[in-house]
Amino acid sequence: MSDMSATVSKTPNGFAVAGYEKLEYNFAFVEGIFNLSNGQMAQCYEKWGRVLTVLDENMKNLYGDAIQNYFDHYNLPVTFHAMPVGETAKSIETLLKICDSMTKFGIIRKEPVLVVGGGLVTDVAGFACACYRRNTNFIRVPTTLIGLIDASVSIKVAVNYGNYKNRLGAYHAPIWTFLDFSFLKTLPTAQVRNGFAEIIKISSCADIKTFNSLDKYCEKLIETRFGRTEGSDPELRRVADELCYDAIFEMLKLETPNLHEIMLDRVIAYGHTWSPFHELQPNPPLRHGHAISIDMAYTATLGLDRGMLSQEEHARILNLFSRAGLSIDHPLYDDTAIEKGTEAILKTRDGALRLAVPSPLGSCEFVNEFTVQDLQKVLRLHKKHAAKYARGGDGLEAYVDASDTGEPTPAPSSNGHANGHANGNGYTNGHSNGANGHSNGVNGHSNGLNGHSNGVNGHSNGVNGHSNGVNGHSNGAKAAAGKRAPVQDAHQENGGIDDLVNEAVPVQRVNV
Ligand SMILES: NC(=O)c1ccc[n+]([C@@H]2O[C@H](COP(=O)([O-])OP(=O)(O)OC[C@H]3O[C@@H](n4cnc5c(N)ncnc54)[C@H](O)[C@@H]3O)[C@@H](O)[C@H]2O)c1
Ligand SMILES: [Zn+2]
Fold first, then answer.
1. What is the pLDDT of residue 301?
2. What is the 3-state secondary structure (H, E, C) of 92-148?
3. From ligand 1's centre to the CA of 117, what distance in Å?
4. How far, in Å, CA of 320 to CA of 316, rounded?
5. Domain ranges within the chain, ordered by starting residue
6. Closest ligand 1 atom, CA of 86?
7. What is the CA radius of gyration of the chain?
8. Helix (H) or strand (E) holding 54
């Protein structure tokens, strides 16, 4: 809901307009939003006498009947629009199909679309609502942990475009967000870990009480999907609810004064400095939660080296990631990743590193004064620390699969990662499964023996393992040799965290 007040005055050669728009949007915690006994959602639609629901195909299969029964019970005819699953569906084409469904449905002014799903669905359908008639209302029901504690806390909506993550988007607040953690009971563990990493992020920089709870109940929280699986201990669920409530509150307090992301020193950027570059280096790429955990663990080691974190605090952070099955290191998190990641993030953050470092644990300081050489030196120290943890610092289920991308993905190479960065003269981000341990990019081709990289347009291309310079995940901008320069203007002026995650490198798909 918004309320604009403005003044118009005459100037010597024109007019000046000044105004502000009041934003109001609400969150409600609900258990079992589609339980027949729960009338809240039905009330929202009583006035309209019908409902258009957008969800993805997985959610339609899992919850379609329950949603249908719910609205039948309340005598509200429901129409479903089921969109494809995965990052490849985060496109303008998917958005247009949602708009077509709105037209077919004949959505009328102020009638809200019901959007049910993970961050992907709420981003795409939310953006469809932002565009449709310039502004269509929506009600948001996040169903993943990322959705519940991260994506749905913001008002950013977007689709990927032209190889770039979230390139087209808007700030568009839903009229309601219903936070129903009971959806977590069907969420795969790997997706729970993704969200867990974001809660570690916020708590280690802003909320020691939440960090302590994560630390105390880590394995149980993940195993029971935050106390939502059948037979979970009610006390655990109470703890889970409390810590999620606190984490969301903290996120809202930190981010709402900066809704349009004007300020660049952002606590919630912890873990999102080198990960945007690194996340897409392996083939298949890392899950977001693992990429940011590596970045956070390494940043904690930088904090230790600077005396900003004690040894005990540092060990607590790394140990928590490790116990959660999250990664704390990766073979491709190397000097190159540090150098290229730094170069990319400096552009996004207006020339300064603005590195959020937990210091002391539970609060945060920003540091700018690292040189790339400092960073690389500490990386060696970090690798020594990481090696001491379970799995040598590797995570569990660390790589994306079809549930994230919407497409079949190749099995990770034998040692679980692509062997080396591509070093193309023209395009520096192509990564391929170079059987020789590296890809030798020339003019945008990666020449891994078995490597085929993949086009955003869905080609699998590679007899000889070429990556598609234009449509593939080699970066589309021409860079000087050894330099990575694809997205200079990616997000200069703001640096939304979600965009930071991936804007530094183009969206990619992995085709077999
Ligand atoms: N707007 C923002 O501020 C913001 C913040 C963070 C992330 N994002 C965006 O969110 C997207 C990632 O979202 P995500 O991590 O929620 O993943 P997602 O929406 O892709 O969902 C992950 C998988 O879980 C399935 N799923 C969803 N809910 C389920 C449930 N309750 N039970 C079983 N399966 C379920 C989905 O069908 C999908 O296969 C990215 O595109 C990212 O850019 C946006
Ligand atoms: Zn993130």
1. 98
2. HHHHHHHHHHHHHHCCCCCCCEEEEECHHHHHHHHHHHHHHHHCCCEEEEECCHHHH
3. 7
4. 6
5. 22-186, 263-512
6. 20
7. 23
8. strand 51-56
Nearest to 328 by CA among 390, 374, 376, 285: 390
Query: Where would I find the H helices in 349-473?
Result: 372-387, 402-405
**Could you read off the pLDDT of 125-137 as tens digits, one per residue?**
999 999 999 999 9
Pairing of strands 156-161, 164-171: antiparallel
- Around ion ligand 2, residues with a beta carbon closer than 5 Å are 501
* Contact of 77 with 71, CB cutoff 8 Å: yes
Dist. CA 281–CA 430, nearest whole Å: 8
Q: Taking CB atoms and a 6 Å cutoff, what residues make up the pocket around ligand 1?
A: 56, 58-59, 62, 85, 87, 90, 117-121, 123, 143-144, 146-147, 150-151, 154, 156, 183, 186-187, 191, 194, 403-404, 498
The whole-angstrom separation of Cα 222 and Cα 213 is 13
Q: Thinking of the domain 22-186, which architecture would CATH place it in?
A: 3-Layer(aba) Sandwich (3.40)
Give the number of the ligand closest to the Cα of residue 268. Answer: 2
Same fold, 22-186 and 263-512: no
**498 CA to centre of ligand 2 in angstroms:** 6
Q: What's residue 5's pLDDT?
A: 81
Nearest ligand to the C-alpha atom of residue 193: 1
For residues 314 and 247, the answer to whether their CB atoms sit within 8 Å is no
- Classify 263-512 by CATH class: mainly alpha
pLDDT in tens, 284-306: 999 999 999 999 999 999 999 99
Map residue 283 onto helix, strand or coil. coil
Q: Mean pLDDT over residues 278-288, rounded?
A: 95
Mutate to test the pocket of ligand 1, among 25, 146, 500 (most ligand atoms within 8 A of CB): 146
